[in-house]
Amino acid sequence: MSRGESGSYASTRSMSFNLGDGPANALALSKDNSHVVVAGRNVFKILSIEEDCFVEKVNLRVGKNLNLNYSCNDVVWSILDENLIATGATNGAVVLWNLSKITRAKQEHVFADHQRTVHKVVFHPTDPFMLLSGSQDGTVKCFDLRVREAKLTFKSNSESVRDVQFLPKNNFSFTSVSENGSVQLWDVRKGGERPFLTFTAHSGPVFSCDWHPDSPNILATGGRDRAIKVWTVTNVASLEHSIATVASVGRIKWRPQRKNHIGSTSLVVDASVCVWDVRRPFVPFAAFEKHKDVATGIIWKSSPHIFLSTSKDCTVWQHVFRDATRPASKAMPQALAVNVRRGEIAQAVTTYQSDSAAPPRFPIFNRKTASLDEQFHMARSLFFTFEAGRLLRDGFRVECAERYTLIGKSAQELCDINSKIALSLNMKSVALVWEITKLFLNTRVTEPVPHIETTKVTVPTPNHVSQAPPKPKEDNEDHISDDDQNHSSSELESQDVLGEIASGLHMTQNLFMSAGPTYEFQINQEGPVLPAEAFQHRHEIREGSPPLHLEDCSPRDVDEAIETVAVENRTSYLKFKFVDPVPAFDFSESLTKALQFHAKEGDVQTAVCVWLVLSPLYKLPIERRVLEAWCYAYIELLQRNRLYAQAAVVIKHCGVLGHLSQESTSYLICCGKCGKPLTQKAGNFCDKCRKAVARCGVCHMTVTGLMSWCQGCGHGGHIEHLRKWFSGHKECPVGCGHVCHS
Amino acid sequence: MFVARGVKTDHKDLIHDVAFDYYGTRMATCSSDQTVRVWELDAQAGNWNCMANWKAHSGSVWKVTWANPEYGQVIATCSFDRTAAVWEEVVGEGSIGDRVSATHWVKRTTLVDSRTSVTDVKFAPRYLGLVLATCSADGFVRIYEAPDVMNLTQWSLQYEIPVKLSCSCIAWNPTYPRHFAPMIAVGIDESTPEVPKVMIYEFNENLRRWNRIESLKDITDPVNDLSFAPNLGRSHHLLGVATKDLKVVSLEPTMVEDDNQVPSSNKVTTRTIAQCSDHNSTVWRVAWNVTGTILASSGDDGCVRLWKGNYMGNWRCVSILRGDGTQATVEPTSAAASATSPVGSFGNSRFMKLGAAAALKQDVVWH
């Protein structure tokens, strides 16, 4: 009864049988494919293969004396005698079993010729009396079943033979594969002395080999080096294909009636049984993932659609191709990436291209089968890059980033400069924004906006006069009365450029600022909120860097009101003194909206740059969160374009991301004499040497700051001292004798 | 106007992923042929030259991703072989084929926690440190951290998030964190329509664990790819999702205002703001431009489409890019074959002739 034809294949289904007694090592089918024998260390059973299940027929592991002869590594069913089964036992015995025996124990004969475990037994395809066995002792033995003795011994060149197989359609030759990675071909007629061909197939042990059932001279080998290799073996062996598997290859078996397909099991890790197309060596054609542990044996049921496998999980499975998973169909067929910097897109798409360049002749017919089976191995990726130009860089111009001036001049001038830059790059709307900003600034100076007065609550106590940093802002004064106590402390002075900008700001304000009366007026206007805040002098220190000039840090209005800062305050005095309270057009709102619009369109560049230019004078009512995101995005854009200097300017002056410049910068120092790392606490004093690390060789004082030293002897000191010394000497000032100055 | 260039990659099987580095001057591709290739831009000619090529895994390499350059030249890969790996370029003699190069790539670690294929790997945004997220077909998202950024061989598994469904892709929310907690979106490729296909996880600073805060239920088809848009001060996040069609989902966190702490939103309101089926076929990949205004998608029709939301929030296809205009330069012999055969399909996807796709949109300037 042959169920292997594709006609009956449709009714066959995947099914399993739990052996229960232990993991199986091998299985073999009877000649008519109706029964399967499964063998392992603790299991030896014959199952009949029914329509939709396995049925246990015979348990061969019976008898009084269950010795190691019953512990099987391999099993084979005679092709010619359906009652004859041979097993290779773990103790080195080759055991014959006769199913026609009437007794319960079917053991017929034991060949105890091998010294160690027998890995493989195989019957001759045509001679019913010839049996081969390959063993861990490094020999292959040929048994004659008529005389019940080992006729020939073939000594391989290695310690262990893992697989043997007769050549198909050749009655006298067989191959053996061994643990040293070599494959040997033997002729039984020539005896056991020398193989007629030896070649190294794998780096590491070869565990399995299989001759192609139809194509002559095609041999597949599988080894621990995670490869299945396909060879054409004539007088020499030449490698045709090499399949890269996930794990060491345990067993391999060609798929019947398919020229290029081979099934494989893994020795470790991977529990699935894979069927490969040798022409596509990286992706399994089909995978069968029923087993829960590694499969140990596979055998095709003479049909390309059905095979059986055993596994260490103590089960036998009948697999049907219909139920296979197709790994290739799960694989991502495309790739896509946007190059953030260059406005470029990379794409990879799958295509099916035949190597012969011949288009499929009947693409309309059998497309379905063609697309899966025939085209499977032709899958390749085409890879393209698209330069989409400005489109993708939406809102970021390197030229702008490079040429914009954001600090160092009056805000109006900056606007002028940047507007021209934008115009020269044909960015009219951006240029317009700059123009509006300038206009806005002008109005701010002359025409204060009424609504702002409500915001100012910081107490301007002109009690402290600090020297103005030598940096004239606008067109005014030299004298600064720092109105905020805050700034009277070291904070402001300790800031560098940042501080200058900030105080520049104060100058502007103070120009218009008189003392007491204004203040009182403000109080009247502002109502009772003031006193509480009068005592909030210090900034809350946020992210390690004090906000530039947010004098008002009351938590109440962290988000919005705070952004309108001192400037407005002062301008409100201005109003009180010089200006009629005519409600002027409020640019701040529209300007804010303009910036928000640009940011939304991806143009954070404009948004951040305008904000930066404005910020010393006027804080637009933009949420801190939003501002941070803008600045962060813009800084990242700059960094991606390697515009580090520009990025540093933004970090420094944006006022919200000051901590970035304090991150990820660390330096480690160690003593130059003994190499011991210096702790922060001790400064430049080495604990081990009990000395200051850097001492001047001339004055013997500790050097702080710049130090110069000789790379030859390692002594050095203050640059000036050394310069003086070496103007008259050539030797080291320490007296070590080294001629430093040559 | 765009310029399409074919690049001969010499990958021997499908290319599954391509990634540009932070500066956009290097590119990494990975393939089923188990290798990774690193390319460098020839700035004058505009060509990409392969600078390194090595066997990275013993299975298909699904994804490749670059770390921020402050950690060195580091990439991570993940593979069918159940592992993810971290590679670093070191100075020292290496070779690409017969050429000798001054650097080579060294495997720094292998992350072996998954029992099944690792389907995606992504470095976290820079502010989180050197952190790597992987997701695998067995339904776990794993988050690793290298506590010492100078030592890439030490990675500790920080969190193992059971998603319980086969994950296909993962995306970090790149939003600057001070007002949002770290967030991850996970794509599911289960074929059963009932289960949610996109999960949103958020890190809770107080509980020190990742919580699922949302699962997008209106996406019913397996998700192939997803990507967060860079957030430029928006109050909501944008997530591009590649599934049967292209979706753009907005995630609006309901903020718990808290003065100085990072707010953990615990809840997001999701809204599908765009659903685009212009590809007329499965969409496989999505990618945002750096400002988060343009979304690129790649579909089974072989085209790259660029999408942009207008001021009304309507998303429109603004451009179609196709590589076949220059296919002849890629592989002259194959041009005929690939023109007649459908591009990229396995079984369930719909076929589309290349010519037909071009006819959909008239106003694209071809170069």
Description:
- The complex is a heterodimer of chains A (742) and B (367).
- Chain A is of the alpha+beta class.
- Among the domains of chain A are: 587-653, no CATH class; 687-741, Herpes Virus-1, CATH 3.30.40.
- Chain A has 18 helices and 37 strands.
- In chain A, strands 1-28-27-26 form a 4-stranded antiparallel beta sheet, with no helix packed on it. Chain A has a 4-stranded antiparallel beta sheet with strand order 2-3-4-5, with no helix packed on it.
- In chain A, α6 packs antiparallel against α7 (428-446).
- The longest helix of chain A has 19 residues, at 428-446.
- Chain A starts with 5 loop residues before the first helix and ends in a 14-residue tail after the last helix.
- Residues 1-7, 355-369 and 447-581 of chain A have low confidence and may be disordered.
- Chain B is mainly β and 367 residues long.
- In chain B, 4% of the residues lie in helices and 49% in strands.
- Chain B has 3 helices and 25 strands.
- In chain B, the strands form 6 sheets. Chain B has a 4-stranded antiparallel beta sheet with strand order 2-3-4-5, with no helix packed on it. A 4-stranded antiparallel beta sheet of chain B has the order 6-7-8-9, with no helix packed on it.
- Residues 325-367 of chain B have low confidence and may be disordered.
Q: CA-to-CA gap between the ends of chain B?
A: 6 Å
Radius of gyration of chain B: 20 Å
Name the structural class of chain A.
Answer: alpha+beta
* Quaternary class: heterodimer
Low-confidence stretches of chain A: 1-7, 355-369, 447-581
The whole-number mean of residue pLDDT values of chain A reads: 75
**Number of β-strand runs of chain B:** 25
Strand content of chain B: over 45%
The CA-CA distance between the termini of chain A, in Å, is 100 Å
Q: Tell how many strands the DSSP assignment of chain A holds.
A: 37
